[in-house]
Amino acid sequence: MGNLNKTKNESGDVDYFALDLDRDELERTLDEMREQKLDNGVNLAGLCGTYDMGFNWLSSKLKSDTNSSTPSIDRKESIVSMSDFDPSPPRKSSLPTPPSSPGLTGDTNVGVLGDDRGPLSFWHLGSSIGNFDRTSAVSFLQTVRDSMRPGYDTLLIGLDGRNQAPIVKRAYDDEYGVTESFILNGLSHASRILAPYNDNNEQLLEGKFRYVSVYDEDKGRHEAYYKSLEDFTINVPVVNAFNEITNGVKEIDIAKDELLNVEWSYKYSDEEAIALFKAAGLRVTYKWTDSEKMYGLWLVERPPFNLLPPNLPMWASTTRHSLQGVPLIDDWLEMWKCWDCIMKMVPSDMLHRKPIDLRHIVLFYFGHIPAFLDIYISRQFGEALTNEHFKDIFERGIDPSMDDPNVCHDHSAVPENEDEWPTLEEVLEFDMKTRERLLNIYADIDLGKLHLDRRLARVLHMTYEHMIMHGETLLYMLIQKCEEINPPSGFSIPDWTALKSLWDVKAEERNQVLEFASQDVLLGHNDSESGDFDAGNKNADSHEYGWDCENPCNRVHVEGFKVDALPIRNGEYKEWLQKTGNNHLPASWALSDGEIKIRTLYGLVDFVIGQSWPVQDSLEQLEKFAVDKGGRIPTEAELKVLSNTIGNDHAGANVSFANWHPIPPAAPSETGKGHNGGVWEWSSNTFEKLEGYEASNLYPGYSSDFYDGAHYVVSGASYATAGRIAERSSFRNWYQKPYSYVFAGARVAYST
């Protein structure tokens, strides 16, 4: 129990609770732990019951202890009965539940779990979660998540990796027959349980089966079976719909060679594991592996909001397989939590400051999001605005020319003096009122009072994605003042030293050059705004909506090309700058006491921490690096080709706040699609209209103001981009070539 001793030494008193269905086994293991003479600060207790009973007990303790002082554990070890918290205790014994689990008596004076007791850490070691099918594993983890407090509690869980088939087969069918003996021993237990129904024959099943081990590599699932050696019949008790044993008995015929499933054991690639956790509303903070990377221990937390990642696998999202269509009410609720989290990062003395000269003060963005929503709700229904004055000052932001800041598109006229701006309280009250307006729309749709047509659906799509985009805008502004802002609340502070050790191993992966043949590729999608009023449009809720610059779908021919599998990273970029005598400092870097550091939303970090992250800089500067390397920046169409192999459009990518910082990029592998570490990618194309372009009449000027030859297309998504946008391959973003503040990097392409 060295780990528990270490925990005690570092963190003070520790309350350790073991959960088991078998009371005798629980007491035996607690006795063994006591004999190992744990430090006095480690208090041992046992919970005898099922997982569900355990979490019900835990939830009750959390609720009862939240507003009261937490009593101490009186004894070193105690068994807590959880039958009082079982929502449906069985009236009779049933086969799946050992008779020792419900209704035990014991010392229930074990007080834990108030916020003043410190964080909880759930341990689910081994890899038994693999015995759930993947969808059930999501449900189980959601149950654990519901007992966790955001930014406070953690779950440490083991998962088997997707290892090669011979390795898996050997683990379950070893040459010494250990696993076979273990599995066949289950027949002895089954014989004793069924003996009363079969003339008290306690050898009922002995010698009637052999063990069969199968690994389904496509499903990543090991399957264990009993294979019958002969035809025979047994009697079993009748179990009713409540899983209760009745007085009835029925015969079961078992045929020779029939397979009886014992268990399944699912294996997880890294991408599948991340999808599992994200679908359950959990966030990965760290991972440990064995030296052969066959087994992983994952440390996860419950984030304060859960913006789903793009393209979750079918098993991870049983009710929703796409983030497109009309945003669900839950999407809005989670995005508001995200927006509130971002607002909390702003110290009060920064509200009237401009972290970036080319943008408005921070308070403008606090008002811009609700004003935009209010304006479009009012236009849609012909209703009065919540606040006319706020429309005048908050309707539209600025993107002035970097060559001449006096040249700018049409925008709102904002106050010149600080005392002319609304107060923060006024802006937040306005925000709450617009949220209420939005919720009322969804309520009326649900009640049938309001018909959801394409135009209303587009307004909901547009206002939702507008908030996504400006959340990211505010973050790339705030990161310029990273030493002054608050870190995101409800998320654990990264352990940079530990993460560096993990990233250093991944950094050993060498860059490679990928080659693609000449081919056609599709840019954009078909989403004509003018078609919103067509009578034949029946799928308003599920249609894939976009912005006017994404419409219509264009087929573009791409000549064969080569491209680096990994984007340009900080370390190599720094070496290039030093080698060429270039004193340029990207906006994502900062000088501190004469040393180059990297900006993060947690403050400055040493350069070595993020040296393998993708560099974030302007197209103007990254283009010079590409040329010096003998290449160029890829075109928009080439990036679309690449996105089928490497992209930020999948659950394993660093998007949708999987992290609040970049991570090292990953090349594609046999078990997963690669990603670029969590940045947008510059293309070499100026932002132009797709053939057949129709300017939006719902949002005039959204894109039409920027077809000026000065803006360039960026593709993909960043770590601060919600999954809805990251998932939609037609999405197009754009920035001016010298603009260095956006979370965007680049890779090097080569003509063939």
Automatic annotation (TrEMBL):
PANTHER family associated with the record: ERGOTHIONEINE BIOSYNTHESIS PROTEIN 1
Transferase in keyword set: yes
Compositionally biased residues, Polar residues: 63-72
Keyword Methyltransferase tagged: yes
GO MF annotation terms: methyltransferase activity
Protein name per Swiss-Prot or TrEMBL: DUF323 domain-containing protein
Keywords: Methyltransferase, Transferase
The Histidine-specific methyltransferase SAM-dependent domain, residue ranges: 118-301
Sulfatase-modifying factor enzyme-like domain: residues covered: 530-640, 677-749
Renumbered residue ranges of the record's region Disordered: 63-111
Gene3D superfamilies per record: paralog of FGE (formylglycine-generating enzyme), Vaccinia Virus protein VP39
GO annotation, biological process: methylation
InterPro entries, A to Z: CTDL_fold, EgtD_Methyltrsf_superfamily, MeTrfase_dom, SAM-dependent_MTases_sf, SUMF_dom, SUMF_sf
